[in-house]
Amino acid sequence: MDTKQNSANLVLRNGRVIDPAMGLDAVVDVLIENGIIAEMRAKIELGPEKLSQFEQIDASGKWIVPGLIDMHVHLREPGEEYKETICSGTQAAVAGGFTSVACMPNTQPVNDCAAVTQYILEKARDEGSCRVFPVGAISKGSEGKNLAEYGELRAAGAAAVSDDGRPVMNSMLMRRALEYAKTFDLLVISHCEDLDLSSTGLMNEGPVSTRLGMRGIPRVAEEIMVARDILLAELTGSRLHLAHISTAGSVALIREAKKRGVPVSAETAPHYFTLTEELISTFDPVYKVNPPLRRPEDIEAIKTGLRDGTIDAIASDHAPHSSVEKDLEFEYAANGVIGLESSLPLILRLIREGVLTPMEAVAKVSRNPARILSIPFGTLRKGITADLTLIDPEVKYAIDVSRFKSKSRNCPFAGIEVQGKAVMTLVGGRVVFSAA
Amino acid sequence: MGFNRKDLLGIRDLEVAEIEYLLNLSRSFKEINERSIKKVPTLRGKTIIHLFYEPSTRTRTSFDIAAKRLSADTYSVTASTSSIVKGETGLDTLKNLEAMRPDVFVIRHSASGAPQMLAGRTTASVINAGDGMHEHPSQALLDMLTILDNKRTLDGLNVVIVGDIYHSRVARSNIWGLTKMGARVMVCGPATLIPPNIDAMGVEVSNRLEECIPDADVIMVLRLQKERQQQMLLPSLREYATLYGINGERLKGAKKDVLIMHPGPMNRGVEISPEVADGPYSVILDQVTNGVAVRMALLYLLAQR
Questions:
Q1: Which of A97, A147, A367, A396 has the highest CB neighbour count under 10 A?
Q2: A331 at B interface, C-beta within 8 A
Q3: For A324, nearest residue in chain B (alpha carbons)
Q4: pLDDT tens digits, chain B, 305 residues: what are they?
Q5: Secondary element (H or E) of residue A98
Q6: Nearest-CA neighbor of A411 among A314, A332, A345?
C-alpha cells in the first residue's frame, strides 16, 4: 500500500477498546509506536520528546477495534477493472473500516496460479489501501474439472482456495480438493449451491416467487451442498469454510456438524440478516444476489446462528457490477451487491437489536476471520502491527451511495437510515482513511 | 372510481371497482366491432407503439386492430428484427422510441417484471401485453368479460384452470381477477407444473382432473408447451393428454352449462380435443372477439391521460 506521509507514531486517547481476542472491553489510551501497538492503558503519559513526535487523537466517545477483516470480497482485478480495481476496492474497504480483505479468484483470468496471485499482491502493495489476501481457485479456471496447483498458490501467498461464484459440483473433486489442500494447510472455502436444483432460478423459491412469476431457487439447493461439504470435511478431516450462508436449514446443519466436531466454519453477509425476498416484488435488480434474499424465518435463524457461534464470521461478499450488468430487466441482470461501505452499520444494528454484544459483533469481523484464514491480525495485542479502526457508534445518517469509494453503485441499502460508522482506519499505524 | 393509473401492468394491484369499470367500459366498445364501418375518431393523432421483446402474433394483432379502430397511429417493434438483435438493451430501445413521443407503449416481454421496470422509466403509458410468467392483464379481463357474457356473475362461480400453471401468466392474472371478483378458483395439473405455495394466491390445488370437472362452471384450458418434456417436467405429451386433456369423454361428467375457455393458441389433441375446441361448450372464439373490445378500452383510457 502507498506509504502516507502521516507518521506511524500516535496515541489514541479515551477510546473504548473492544478486542475479543484479548477479551478486553475498556476505556484506555492506545500508544502506537513505529506502527506497532506499544501500550494500552488508562492515561498514558508521554515524555516531552515524544509529545512532539506523536500525533494525539481524541477518541472519546469512539470505539477502538482491531482493524476489521472482510474475508469475502470481489476486487475484479485483473480483468474487470471497469467494475472495481484493487485500488478502488481497498479504498472502499478502509472507508468501511476494513484493514484486511480476502479477495475471491473469479477474476479474468481466474486466479488459479502464482502469476495472478502475485499480480494481485503487487497491485495491492503498490496501489492498495489495505491488506489484500488473495484466495486461489479450487480447480483450474474454476471449471470444476481438475485441481489447481495448491503448492504453487500457497507459495505465492494465497490464503485459501475457493471456486466462489460457482460450486464444485463433482463430489469426488471436492473430496480430492479437501484432501490435497490439507498438505499446504490451505483452507477450502465452499460456495454451496446445487446448480441442477438452482437451474434457471432467479430468487428464493416460495410463495413470493410463485406470485411474481419467477423461477425459484429452493433453499435445499444450498442445504444439499452444505450437507455434502460437511460430510466430506468429516471424511477428510480437512478444514472447510462455508461462504455466504443464507438459510435456516444451512444454519441447523452447521450447528449439528460443529457439535460432532467437524472442522467447519461459516460466514454470512449483512444482506442475509437484513433483507427479505419481498423486496423483489419491486423487480429492482439491485436486490438480485446469489444466494438469493430469503424469508424472515431465515433472517431469524441467521441471527440465532450468529449469536450461538454457529456462524463465525460476517463477510460482505462485495460484488461490484456496473450499470451495464445491473440496469437491465431482473432476469438479465447480474447477481451481486456491494457491501464494504455498508457492512459495519448493519453489524452495529445487530448489537442494538440485542442479537450480539459489542464484543461478539467485533469478533465476527476480526478475531474469527483472522483465525479462520490463519492470518496474524484481528487483535490489538501489544507488539502487533497497528491495524485498527475507530468507530463512531452514535452518528446517525442515511447511506449515501453517491459518496462511495467503490467504482460501482449496486447497493441494496441505498438511502436507508443507519447508525454508526468507521471514522478512522489505520493500517500498520498509518491513517489510511479519515472521515471528513 | 374509474381508472386513474398511468399504466396497466397487472391485475394483482387493481381494486375490484377498477376491474368492474374496465369490464363495463370494454362492453361499451363491443358494438363498434360489429359495425360495417369499424372506426371511431377517439384516438386520432395518438401514437401507440407495440414494443414486443417476445414475439406474438395474436395479441399484437388484437392490440393493433383495437388501436386502429380508434384511429390511433400504430407502429410495431419486434425484438427479432430490431436493434435488440444488435445488442441494444431493453431500456435503450425504450428510451430511443420514447424520444419519438409515443403516447402508449404496449409491451410484451419474456422477463417477468420487465414492463414494470420500463414503465418506471418513461412518461408514456405502458400496457403490459404479457411479461414472462407474471401477468397478462388484458387476457384476464377478456376472460372475465367472456364469462360474464354467459354467467350472471363471477361471485361464487367455480373456475378450474387446467394445465401448466407454473409457467402461465394467463393463470396468474386470472387467479387475481377471479378471486377478487369472488370466484372460487381451482388449479389443476401435474404436480411438476403447479408452482410452489400457489395456495397463498387464494386457490385450491388438485392433481386429478376428474375430481375437478363435476363442480366446474368454467374450465380454462392452458396451452402445454411441447418443450416441457425436455425440461424434466413431464414424461410425455401422451401421458399429459391422457391425464389432463379436456376431451368429450371427460366432459360427460361436467355441468350442462359448463364453459370451455382457452387463451390460445391451442395444441389440438394435447390439452384440448378438437371436438371440445369446436364443440357447444367452447367460447374460445368469443374470447378473441372480446379481446379487441378490452384492448380498445385500455388504449382509450391510457392514451388520453
A1: A97
A2: yes
A3: B89
A4: 789 999 999 999 999 999 999 999 999 999 999 999 999 999 999 999 999 998 888 999 999 999 999 999 999 998 776 666 778 889 999 999 999 999 999 999 999 999 999 999 999 999 999 999 999 999 999 999 999 999 999 999 999 999 999 999 999 999 999 999 999 999 999 999 999 999 999 999 999 999 999 999 999 999 998 877 778 999 999 999 999 999 999 999 999 999 999 999 999 999 999 999 999 999 999 999 999 999 999 999 999 98
A5: strand A98-103
A6: A345
CA B3 to each of CA A197, B72, B298: distance values in angstroms, whole numbers, following the listed order: 42, 20, 10
CATH number of the domain residue B183 falls in: 3.40.50.1370
**Residue B161 near residue B185 (C-beta atoms within 8 A):** yes
Q: Are residues B281 and B145 in the same domain?
A: yes
Residues B145 and B275 in one domain: yes
Q: Establish, for the pair of chains A and B, how many residue pairs have beta carbons separated by less than 8 Å.
A: 69
Strand partners for A385: A36
Task: Decide if B215 is inside a domain.
Answer: yes
- Residue B18 is which amino acid? E
* Count of other CB atoms within 10 angstroms of residue A53: 11
Whether B85 and B145 map to the same domain: the answer is no
Instruction: Report the complex ipTM.
Output: 0.94
CA–CA distance from A140 to each of A173, A185, A301, B49 (Å)?
12, 19, 35, 49
In a shared domain, residues B77 and B145: no
Which band of pLDDT confidence, cut at 50, 70 and 90, is reported for residue A4? very low
End-to-end CA distance of chain A: 21
Please tell me the distance in Å from A144's CA to the nearest CA on chain B: 24
Q: Which domain holds residue B40?
A: 16-135+288-303
Q: Are strands B47-52 and A240-242 parallel, antiparallel or unpaired?
A: unpaired
Q: Would you list which residues of chain B are within 8 Å, Cβ to Cβ, of chain A?
A: 12, 89-91, 109-114, 116-117, 131-135, 169, 172, 195-198, 200-201
| DSSP letter, residue A95 | H
**What total of structural domains would you count in chain B?**
2
Bridge partners of A425? A389, A433
C-alpha cell of residue B60: 399484437
Residues 301-330 of A with CB under 8 A from B: 327-330
Inspect the interface and report whether the beta carbons of B114 and A216 lie closer than 8 Å: no
Q: How far is B125 from chain A (nearest CA, A)?
A: 18
Q: Is residue B11 domain-resident?
A: no
CB A159, CB A73: distance < 8 Å:
no
Phi, psi of B51 (to 5 degrees): -110, 95
pLDDT digits (tens, 9 = 90+) for A312-331: 999 999 999 999 999 999 99
